[in-house]
């Protein structure tokens, strides 16, 4: 009887809180909504699984209850920062409109952390997006998936879950493009879309998905989604695929809003969160070095897909934006960079430079003018400062990742090298080394003709010493229909002496894929041999 009274009291308390908080919510008539992205460092050692999940859950709730989150309509947490395969949870089907908060852990098949976060969304009247490790009974799903089950009859997924303001699960997405993970994939790719009470329709996906047509580009092209939620534990790669760099490029190339939350483990290469409004650039962004953070970044996001003008000038907020080059982040290097057709740029002259480079079907031109610069980036501390050399490179072919999965890309751009050798490109000077560029790019233009394709995304690509991309006030981007090709150009609008990358990045999705038979089969055999009772990656 006492427990029943407590349960009724809690429901009444929730009702009062809902009424109080409702006045803070954006509505369908507002020209904007308030979004928050969480850069979150997960615990990885020194705790039991139960302690780790409890720590993460409590930290999530503290963020949702914080003063910074008070006015937010939607808060997004990153990939792989809540639970793990040792404590997965079942997740309700969105069509069932289940509110885990109204269940108890004693009577529910859902883990306590899912219930608590449902309650946190309900109590704080927010849409909340989390990423977790999900389990599903695959025998119950046999009618829809003829592939064999694991020995324990469980599928293990990398899953996004969306709660509405009532704490109801309204959307669920299981990652399609897995990246060196002991996870299953669904028999057919999923497309996750949900509507909000403030008049915005979202699609969402996870990390490595961003490199592929399905489901990411299809959400935009096939389903017309103009507001994207992206959860990630992105491991940055130089010179073209660091976190903020790709997030902004993808948003700009598609001219969509992207709300991106990143895991914060800089020592493993994972950091990068932000909110981007198409070709208007970033509203807020965070690249974090050191030990990482647990921090919420908030922006007022215009509904520009509904014809709402983006305010000009935009007040942009960048974390840790200093004159010291970013360090402390472990980085990958493009495995195909040595295969670029490239030429070292002789930039110690005041004379303009113009040249052309070709790689099979693609040719690009570059024109450069420089001017002297006396700036030194970072603390010199008496040591001789370093300087970057630059190469102008062109590439068009398949590139691989850390598994049997590929992207067909075409790239024209300049990229920094620590010396004159090709092998030094895509690398940085050692931590705490000051950088004395000696010159600034006064004029920098890159142009190329990119053959048309049904599935093609053209993106401006840039990166500075802080690992942030240049914004629209610094870059002019043009794509012109030239018949059988697109004439693409990127121009530097203001002098810059802190560039690491500047160019054009194209993804020809028709030539991209997962080498389905070989790649999936190899991963399936590895998984079966090492973890036969945990997972099978189904072919």
| Overall tally of domains | 2
What class, by secondary structure content?
Answer: alpha+beta
Mind telling me which CATH architecture of the largest domain this is? 4-Layer Sandwich
CATH domain fold name of the largest domain: Nitrilase/N-carbamoyl-D-aminoacid amidohydrolase
Uncertain stretches: 1-12, 14-23, 514-539
Roughly what fraction of the amino acids lie in strands? 25-35%
Largest sheet: 7 strands, mixed
> Radius of gyration, rounded?
24 Å
Strand order of the largest sheet: 6-7-8-10-11-12-14
Please state the overall shape, judged from the principal axes of the Cα atoms: globular
Explain what the structure shows.
- The chain is an alpha+beta fold and 539 residues long.
- It folds into two domains: 31-318, Carbon-nitrogen hydrolase (Nitrilase/N-carbamoyl-D-aminoacid amidohydrolase, 4-Layer Sandwich); 333-514, no CATH class.
- The chain contains six helices and 25 strands.
- The chain has helices at 2-22, 49-64, 112-124, 213-221, 243-254, 516-530, and strands at 32-40, 74-76, 127-137, 154-163, 169-174, 192-195, 201-206, 227-232, 237-238, 257-262, 273-277, 282-286, 294-302, 317-318, 332-333, 341-344, 353-359, 362-372, 389-400, 406-417, 439-451, 456-464, 475-481, 485-492, 499-508.
- It has a seven-stranded mixed sheet with strand order 6-7-8-10-11-12-14, with helices on one face. A six-stranded mixed sheet has the order 5-4-3-2-1-13.
- β6 (192-195) and β7 form a beta hairpin.
- α2 (49-64) packs parallel to α3.
- The protein is globular, with a radius of gyration of 24 Å.
- 47% of the residues are buried.
């Amino acid at each position: 009887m006492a427990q029943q009274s407590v349960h009724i009291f809690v429901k009444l308390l929730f009702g009062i809180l809902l009424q109080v908080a409702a006045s803070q919510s954006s509505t369908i008539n507002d020209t904007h909504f308030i979004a928050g992205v969480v850069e979150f460092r997960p615990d990885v050692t020194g705790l039991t699984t139960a302690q780790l999940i409890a720590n993460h859950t409590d930290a999530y709730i503290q963020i949702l209850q914080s003063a910074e989150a008070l006015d937010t309509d939607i808060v997004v947490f990153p990939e792989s920062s809540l639970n793990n395969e040792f404590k997965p949870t079942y997740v309700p089907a969105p069509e069932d409109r289940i509110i885990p908060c109204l269940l108890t852990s004693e009577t529910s098949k859902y883990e306590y952390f899912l219930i608590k976060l449902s309650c946190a969304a309900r109590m704080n009247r927010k849409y909340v997006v989390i990423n977790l490790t999900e389990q599903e009974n695959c025998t119950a799903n046999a009618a829809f998936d003829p592939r064999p089950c694991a020995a324990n009859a469980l599928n293990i997924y990398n899953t996004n879950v969306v709660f509405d303001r009532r704490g109801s699960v309204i959307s669920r997405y299981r990652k399609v493009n897995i990246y060196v993970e002991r996870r299953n994939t669904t028999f057919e790719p999923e497309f996750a879309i949900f509507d909000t009470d403030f008049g915005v329709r979202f699609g969402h996906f996870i990390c490595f998905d961003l490199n592929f047509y399905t489901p990411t580009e299809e959400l935009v092209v096939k389903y017309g989604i103009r507001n994207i939620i992206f959860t990630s534990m992105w491991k940055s790669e130089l010179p073209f695929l660091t976190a903020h760099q790709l997030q902004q490029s993808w948003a700009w190339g598609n001219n969509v809003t992207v709300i991106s939350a990143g895991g914060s483990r800089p020592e493993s290469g994972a950091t990068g969160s932000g909110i981007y409004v198409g070709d208007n650039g970033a509203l807020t962004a965070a690249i974090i070095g050191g030990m990482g953070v647990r921090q919420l970044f908030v922006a007022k996001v215009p509904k520009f897909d509904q014809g709402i003008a983006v305010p000009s000038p935009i007040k942009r907020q960048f974390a840790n934006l200093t004159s010291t080059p970013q360090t402390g982040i472990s980085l990958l290097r493009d495995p195909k960079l040595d295969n670029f057709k490239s030429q070292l740029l002789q930039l110690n002259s005041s004379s303009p430079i113009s040249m052309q480079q070709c790689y099979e079907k693609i040719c690009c031109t570059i024109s450069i003018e420089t001017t002297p610069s006396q700036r030194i980036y970072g603390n010199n501390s008496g040591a001789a400062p370093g300087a970057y050399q630059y190469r102008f490179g062109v590439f068009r072919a398949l590139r691989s990742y850390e598994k049997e999965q590929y992207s067909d890309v075409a790239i024209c751009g300049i990229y920094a090298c620590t010396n004159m050798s090709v092998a030094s490109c895509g690398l940085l000077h050692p931590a705490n080394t000051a950088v004395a560029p000696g010159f600034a790019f006064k004029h920098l233009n890159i142009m190329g003709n990119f053959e048309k394709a049904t599935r093609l995304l053209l993106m401006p690509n840039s990166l500075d010493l802080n690992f942030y991309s240049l914004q629209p006030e610094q870059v002019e981007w043009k794509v012109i229909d030239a018949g059988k090709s697109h004439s693409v150009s990127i121009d530097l609008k203001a002098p810059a002496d802190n560039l690491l990358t500047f160019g054009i990045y194209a993804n020809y999705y028709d030539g991209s894929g997962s080498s389905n038979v070989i790649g999936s089969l190899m991963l399936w055999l590895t998984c079966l041999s090492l973890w036969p009772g945990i997972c099978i990656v189904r072919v």
